[in-house]
Amino acid sequence: MIVVVYDISARNLQRQRNTVTEVFEILGIEDKKKIEVYNKIDLLTSEEANIIRSNIPDGIFISAVTGCGIERFKEILRDNLYGR
C-alpha cells in the first residue's frame, strides 16, 4: 500500500497528481493499492472543499493543523493494513 499526501491548497494540485501517476508508471507500481490524502483542507473555503471532494470522491481530506479527518484516515489505514 502506498500513501500519497498532496497539498490541497497548492495551485498546481492536478500537476502534482499527474506527476505522481507518471512516476508510479515509471516505477511499475501503478497497480499497487494507493490511498490519496489531501492535507491542508483547513485552508479552503467550505465551497472549495466541497467542489474538490466531489471531484475526488475516494480522497481522504485532512488538516494536520486542526486534526480534521485524522481519525478517519487512521481508520482507513487500519482497515487496509489489517483487513478490519
Task: Explain the overall architecture.
With 84 residues, this protein is of the alpha/beta class. It has a single domain, classed as P-loop containing nucleotide triphosphate hydrolases (Rossmann fold), CATH 3.40.50.300. It contains 3 helices and 3 strands. The protein has helices at residues 13-27, 46-55, 70-82; strands spanning 2-7, 34-39, 60-61. It has a 3-stranded parallel sheet with strand order 1-2-3, sandwiched between helices. α1 (13-27) links the parallel β1 (2-7) and β2 (34-39). The longest helix is centred in the first third of the chain and has 15 residues, at 13-27.
Q: Which second-level CATH architecture applies?
A: 3-Layer(aba) Sandwich
Strand content: 15-25%
Gap between N and C termini, in Å?
Answer: 15 Å
The geometry reads as globular
CATH superfamily: P-loop containing nucleotide triphosphate hydrolases
| Share in helix | 40-55%
Number of helices: 3
Strand order in the largest sheet: 1-2-3
Stretches where pLDDT falls below 50 for ≥5 residues? Answer: none
**Major sheet description:** 3 strands, parallel
Structural class: alpha/beta
Q: Gyration radius, to the nearest Å?
A: 13 Å
Q: How many distinct beta strands?
A: 3
Look at the structure and give the CATH class: Alpha Beta
What CATH calls the topology is Rossmann fold
